Every structure is written in C-alpha cells, then in structure tokens.
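User: Let's play a game. I give you a shape written as tokens, and you guess the letters that built it. Ready? Here's round one.
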C-alpha cells in the first residue's frame, strides 16, 4: 500500500513551470529572427573582445544561437548551452560550426575554474526564480577561473518594464492611474487579440508576483506577458554578484552608458552586469575586485 496521500496538494507553480513551455513554443521564432541586439550589448562585447579572444567562452541560455554569431566568433573554444531542447536544435541549425549542448545553468557540466568568460544574454537569467538564480551564479563562480569574467543582462526593478502590465491591474506599489486605465482601453480597441492574451496571462500569474523592493518577481511585455521573470535594482545586482564571489563590477545600460552606484537608472528596462571572479581566498570587499573590468574610453 502506498503511503502517499490520496489527494496530494498540487505543488505551487514556479517560474520554470510557466516559462519552459514559452521557450519551447518560441524556438522557431528565435531561429528565424535572431539578429537583434542593443547598444549596451555591443558596447560590452567591444570592451571585452580583446581580453577574451581565443579563450574558453561559455554562452549560457544560448537560445537559437544569436550570440554564437557575436562572441562565438571570438574563439574556437566556444560552447553554447541551453536547457530547452528545441532551442538547442535551433542553435545547431543556425550555427553548425558551434559546439552547442543541452545543459542547465544551475548544474553545469564543466570543471571548476575551466572557463574564462561566462555570458548569459538577453535577460535569460531572469527566467530563473530567486533561488535558482543564486544557484546559477554559484555555478558561474565555480566554473570560472579566478579573474575570469561573468557578463549577463538582467531586468531592472527600477525600470519601465517592471509593473508594465497590459491592463489597469497594478504591480505591487503601483496603483492604477488614469494613464494606465487609458492605455488599457486604447490597447483593447487597437490590438484586441494581443491585448486579451496579455491580460489573461497577467491575471493568470498574479499570485506568483512578489516585490521585495530591491528584487521582484513579475512579468514583462515580451511574449505577451507570458513569462514569469526576476527583476533586480542596479545596487542589488552589485551586492548579489559580490555575495557570489565576484568583484570589480561594472553596470552598463541598454544604451551602453555606465550606471554608477546609487543611480537607479530608471530609464533602462534592463542592464548589463560585467564582473570578475575573485580568487577563492580573497575576502569579499563589496564591489571592489582584484582587477578592474576593462572599459573602452
Ligand atoms: C531570452 S532567451 C535568450 C536566448 C539567447 N541568449 C538570445 O539572446 O537570443 C533565454 C534563454 O535562456 C534559456 N534558459 C532559461 N533558463 C535556463 C537554464 N536554467 N539553463 C539553461 N538555459 C536556460 C531559455 O531556454 C532561453 O533559450
């Protein structure tokens, strides 16, 4: 006789339960429209290119290979990893020359200190919930050699995407305003199908939203608000990487402009974190690191 309860309480959905089907469903779209990037990404890659050329690069959440054509061309020692099988297949078709593998950011099959650059682009890290985000950052710290670089983009808790819901419903701390009600009505008339999908998605996932001020779980306009994503403020992002063994951190907004400490950068829906693995025996000094992250003047 089984000792399991006859009517088990279903587990609460987590971000991955919601996001995994979206990644699979949009693999074909990513495969055909994969030449997007923004000034921030171009600036960051330009700044790192000389240092990481011909080194060991790990491109996490590689999707359909968009970034394989950017940083993958800097070295023959490039590996792209994604945990969505349809995206791994799409990346292999787009980039037959590249080493693309199925793998999870939270449990990487790479040796300690074996990688020179870990790259996780297009706010891919934000589809992990808070606990898994921390696991992924620990994994990046493990596989990077001391002094190695970690670069990722992340959604800004202080930026315009946070709380940008398709209806007069509000994000925590953002009550409905006449502007939001007007925008809701206008979208319903101009884009009814998209509007209804987005509205339904937000309503459906509202109970998963959290707001801790310096980080939050919410949704975002991309993919009709179907994803559950993580937001973080610039200052909290600095503290987060420092707590995971990184230093010399620099933040860059979507326009490629530096974000200084205490600048909320509320103009930027996402920003880039560029940081360096501290040696294990070196104590954390907040945002200070062993060597500054290179910048191009
Ligand atoms: C926003 S897409 C970005 C794709 C690609 N980097 C780009 O910029 O076009 C995020 C990607 O991260 C992948 N991903 C999300 N969580 C992951 C995890 N835990 N491990 C590996 N890949 C993950 C998804 O499958 C998806 O392909």
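Assistant: Ready! My guess for every position:
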């Amino acid at each position: 006789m089984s000792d399991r309860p006859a009517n088990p309480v279903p587990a609460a959905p987590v971000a991955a339960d919601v996001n995994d089907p979206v990644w699979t469903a949009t693999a074909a779209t990513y495969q055909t429209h994969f030449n997007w990037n923004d000034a921030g990404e171009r600036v960051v890659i330009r700044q790192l290119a000389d240092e990481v050329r011909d080194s060991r690069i790990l491109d996490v959440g590689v999707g359909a290979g968009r970034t394989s054509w950017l940083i993958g061309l800097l070295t023959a020692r490039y590996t792209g990893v994604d945990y969505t099988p349809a995206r791994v297949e799409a990346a292999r078709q787009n980039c037959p020359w590249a080493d693309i593998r199925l793998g999870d950011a939270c449990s990487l099959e790479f040796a300690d200190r074996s990688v020179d650059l870990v790259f996780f682009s297009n706010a891919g890290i934000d589809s992990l919930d808070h606990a898994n985000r921390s696991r992924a950052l620990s994994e990046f710290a493990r596989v990077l050699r001391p002094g190695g670089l970690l670069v990722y983009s992340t959604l800004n808790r202080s930026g315009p995407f946070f709380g940008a819901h398709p209806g007069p419903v509000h994000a925590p701390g953002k009550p409905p305003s006449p502007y939001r009600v007007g925008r809701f009505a206008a979208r319903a008339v101009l884009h009814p199908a998209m509007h209804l999908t987005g509205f339904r998605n937000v309503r459906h996932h509202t109970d998963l939203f959290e707001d801790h001020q310096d980080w939050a779980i919410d949704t975002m306009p991309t993919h009709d608000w179907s994803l559950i994503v993580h937001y973080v403020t610039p200052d909290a992002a600095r503290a987060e990487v420092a707590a995971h063994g990184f230093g010399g951190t620099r933040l860059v907004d979507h326009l490629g402009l530096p974000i200084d400490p205490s600048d909320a950068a509320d103009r930027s829906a996402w920003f880039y974190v560029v940081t360096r693995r501290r040696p294990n025996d070196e104590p954390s000094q907040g945002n200070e690191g062993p060597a500054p992250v290179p910048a191009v003047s």
